Amino acid sequence: MSAPSSRRGSAVADDPEIVTDPSLPPVAVTDEQEREASRWTWPKIVLWVAIALLGGLAWVMLAIVRGETVNAIWFVFAAVCTYLIGYRFYSKVIERYITRPDDRRATPAEVRSDGKDYVPTDRRVLYGHHFAAIAGAGPLVGPVLAAQMGYLPGTIWIIVGVVLAGAVQDYTVLFFSMRRGGRTIGQMARQELGRIGGTAAIIASLLIMLIIVAILALVVVNALGESPWGVFSVAMTIPIALFMGVYLRYLRPGKVTEVSLIGFVLLMFAIVGGGWVAGTEWGQAIFHLDRTTIAVGIIIYGFIAAVLPVWLLLAPRDYLSTFMKIGVIVMLAGAIVLVRPEISVPAVTIFGENGLGPVFAGPLFPFLFVTIACGALSGFHALIASGTTPKLIEKEKQTRFIGYGGMLMESFVAIMALVAAVSIDQGIYFAMNASAAATGGTVEGAVAFVNSLGLTGVHVTPEMLTTTAANVGEESIVSRTGGAPTLALGLAHIMHQFLGGTALMAFWYHFAIMFEALFILTAVDAGTRVARFMLQDSIGAWVPKFRDVTWRPGVWICTAIMVAGWGTILILGVTDPLGGINTFFPLFGIANQLLAAIALAVVMAIVAKRGPSYVKWLWIIAVPMVFTAVITITASAYKIFSPVPAIGYWANNAKYRAAQAAGDGSLGTPEVVNAVIRNTAVQGTLSIIFVVLAIIVIIAASVVTIKAIRAGGGENTEDAPVPSRRYAPAGLIPTKPERELEKQWEPILAEERRELAHRGH
C-alpha cells in the first residue's frame, strides 16, 4: 500500500519524476498529441456553433417566447445542447486547472488490484455501474413534486445546476478520492479538516444516509401499494437478477451483453405476466398488498441484499437497471421529439409564487432547490463517488467521463421526469399528488379538493379519474403520492401516442413502474451497502475487527443497525396521515443537499492545500458550495422556525398538540393526531441535527481553506505516485492518438488474457 505524500503545496499531477517502464509502450497520450487531436477545424467550429445556436433557441422558446402552451421538444434540445457544451468546455477547465490528472500515474485499482474491491474496470462498464449506483429516486421524484411550481424554475435548476454544481461535485470528489486510495468522503473530511470537522462529517453522512435510503424505499412502497400488477412485476426482478448473477459467474462468465439481453426479455415477460396475474383471483389475493406490508418486505429485502455477495444480486441488478434506465430515457426523449406534446402548465404557477402548494408547502426559494435534489446536485453521489467507483478507475483521465458525464446523464433523467409530469392534465396531477388527508383517498374527495384550488383552466371530473385509472390498469390513481405513479402516467401518456394507442397505456404505465423500481431498488441495495461500510469503518476506530469487511458478524451487525434505522423512518413515512412523501421529502432534499455542501467544503479545502496556482480557480468549487449551503441552511430554518404549520415541523407539532390537549377531533382521530405529533418531532429533531453538523463542517473547511491560502499551500495527503503499467482511453470514443496507442498495447493485453485463461484452467 502506498504511503501518503507529505509535501506541501505541490500537485502530484505535475510531477516530472514519474518514470514509466521503457520496455512498455507509452501509458499515456502526450500533451502535444492531445493538443493536435483537439485542434480546432472548420467542421468542428461549425458543429459547436450549431449546437450553441440550437441550445440558445430552445432556451429562448422556454423562457421568453412562450404562449399558452410550449412544445416539449424545446426541453430536450435545451438540455442536450447545454450538456454537450458543459462537458466539452466547462469540465475541461476543471480538468486543466483543478484536477490535473496524469495518466502516467497508476490508479488505486492498478496499484492495489485484489480482484475484489480494487479492480481496473473498463470505462464503459464502470460508467454504467456508476450511473446505476447514483441514479435513484431523486431524479424521478423531485422534478415531479416540483412541477406544482411550474416548468421553468425546475428546468433552469436541473440543467444549469448540474453543469455548475452537481457534475462539478461528482467529478472532483471522485478524482480526489481516487488520489487517496478510494477513501470515503468521511475519511477525507477527517484527514483534511481535523477531528471536529471530520467527526461531524462522518456522523452527518451516516444519519443523512438513513433518510436518503428510507425515502427511496418509500417511493417504491407508494408506487406498489394496492397494485398487484406492479408488486408481481417488481418482485420478479429479484429472481431474474439472481439468475443473471449465477449465469454470469458460473454459466457464461464475462458475457455481460448476452446476460443483459436475456434479463431484458425476462423483464418484458414479467411486465406482461403481471397484467395477467393481476386479472386472476389468486393474483389479487397474493399480490394485492397494503403499503405497510410492502414496506416490511422491502426492509427484509434491504438486509438480505446488503449482505449477499455483490456478484449475486447487486451487480446483475446494475446491469439490468443501467440498460433499462438509459434505454427508457433515450426512448422517451425520442418519443417527445416525434410526438411533440404541448405543455399547458404555466412557466411559474401560483404555488411557485405563494409557496402554499398542495403537494408540498414552502416558497420557491429555497424549496425548489431542495425538492429537485438528485437531478441537479446530490450529496448521495459523493458517497458513491468516494465509495466503490474510485477503487475501479482504470486511468486518471477517465474520472471526467465517469464523474462529470455520469451526472449529466442523471440530469437528463430529471428533465425527462419533469416533462412527463407537466405533460399530463394539471387536475389529474394534483389529484394524484395531494395527500390522502386532503382528498380522503376517494374520487369524489379528489374532485372536490382539486376544483377548490381555483386554478385557471383546471377542472377535474370523476370520469377523468376513473377512466385514467382504468386505462393504466389500476383501481385508483387518487393520492398516489411519491412521484413514481405520476411519472409512470406521464410516460404512458407520451408513449401511447408514439406506439400502441390507448390499448397499450396499461403496459406503458407498469413498464414505467418497473423501470422506476429498478432505479430505486438499485439505490436501496447500494445505499445500504455503502452505509454499512461507513458504519463498519466508524466502529472500527474503537473495535478494529469491524473494519474487516470479510468478518461476517460485523457485516450482519452493521447492516442490521443501518436497516433498522432507515426501516423505522420508512414505517413512519408509510403511516404518516399527512402523506409520507409530502412531509418527508423536504427533509430528504435538505439532508441530501447538506451532504453536498459538506462534500464541496471538503473538496474546497483539498484544492486550497494544493497551492497558489490552484487557488485562483477555487471559485469553481466555492460558488456551488456557498450556494447550496445558503439554500439548505435557509430551508432548514424554515422547517425549524416557520410559524406556518404547513411549512414548519415544530409549528405543525404544536398545532396537533394543542388539538390533542383540547380534545379537538377536527384534525383527525386520536391515532392520526398521535402519528403527526410523533413524525413532526422526529423530522424537526433531525432537521436541527443535520444543519448543526453541516455548519460545523463548513466552518472547519473554511478555516482550513483560509489557512492554506495564506500559507501558500498545505499538507498533501494524496498517496505517493506509482508509475502506471497499463493504458486505456479517457472517454467513450477514443481519439486518433488513443486508437494508435491501443494498437500498441493490444499484443500485451492479449498475452495477459491468455495467461489468465491458462490460470483459470
UniProtKB/TrEMBL annotation:
GO terms for cellular component: plasma membrane. One of its GO terms (biological process) is cellular response to starvation. It comes from the Bacteria. The chain crosses the membrane at residues 45-65, 71-90, 131-150, 156-176, 196-221, 227-247, 259-279, 294-315, 322-339, 359-380, 401-424, 507-528, 549-572, 584-608, 617-641, 686-706. Residues 71-635 form the CstA N-terminal domain. InterPro entries: CstA, CstA_N. Keywords: Cell membrane, Membrane, Transmembrane, Transmembrane helix, Transport. Residues 1-31, 715-735 are annotated as: Disordered. It holds the Pfam family CstA. It is a multi-pass membrane protein. Its main location: membrane. Coiled coil: none annotated. It is found in: Cell membrane. Belongs to the peptide transporter carbon starvation (CstA) (TC 2.A.114) family. This is Carbon starvation protein A.
